[in-house]
Design a protein that fits this description.
The protein has 186 residues and is mainly alpha-helical. The chain has helices spanning 2-15, 25-29, 36-46, 51-64, 68-73, 76-83, 90-105, 114-117, 125-136, 145-154, 165-175, 181-185. The radius of gyration is 17 Å and the shape is globular.
């Protein structure tokens, strides 16, 4: 399994897309850390939406509301208007509710653990693991439908999904490295 994460990280170091919410592998190696607000915002936007579509929305949101406190301070209707075109509007409502909690009850600080992150509106297992790994460097296995399919193929797992879901999670727990888990996730 060491070979798998080593090969993936080598590929990522060479080919990672430059995205407005992402710290490049080179910057990460020099100690630059991801902004938890940016990781959370992009991850929520990317649910059921392509990267190409999300880029401009992300940039607009961060320009309009540079911090989670700024997002919490705005009217919900402003968030809904800015979200128009991304679809799945419950994500926008949860985004605003989550920003309110983080800003008003947590002093603008996102929880650092996946378990605590899941207590916030709109943050489930995948998003909490992604935030914990990317923003805080926690070794959290991130599993979605794409990862399930790929992990089944890598292992030549004949068990069809969804029956193989728990095996896929166990596989990701085994292969997610201690070093650079956020880059591995991305």
């Amino acid at each position: 399994m060491d070979c798998l994460h080593s090969r993936l990280l080598t590929w990522y170091d060479r080919h990672a897309r430059i995205l407005p919410w992402r710290v490049s592998p080179q910057d990460g190696k020099m100690g630059v850390v991801a902004n938890p607000y940016h990781v959370w915002l992009s991850d929520v936007m990317l649910q059921q939406t392509t990267v190409a579509t999300v880029k401009s929305y992300f940039e607009k949101f961060v320009h309009q509301w540079p911090t989670v406190e700024d997002l919490a301070a705005c009217d919900r209707e402003d968030v809904m208007k800015a979200w128009a075109g991304l679809g799945y509007y419950s994500r926008a409502r949860n985004l605003k509710a989550c920003a309110d909690i983080v800003a008003h009850e947590r002093g603008g600080q996102f929880p650092r653990s996946a378990a605590e992150l899941q207590q916030l509106p709109g943050i489930g297992a995948y998003t909490s693991a992604a935030i914990a790994a990317i923003a805080y460097g926690h070794r959290e296995p991130v599993v979605d439908g794409n990862i399930e399919r790929v992990s089944c193929r890598i292992r030549a797992n004949a068990t069809p999904l969804p029956a193989a879901k728990s095996n896929c999670r166990a596989f990701m727990e085994a292969v997610t490295p201690e070093d650079r888990p956020g880059d591995f996730v991305q």
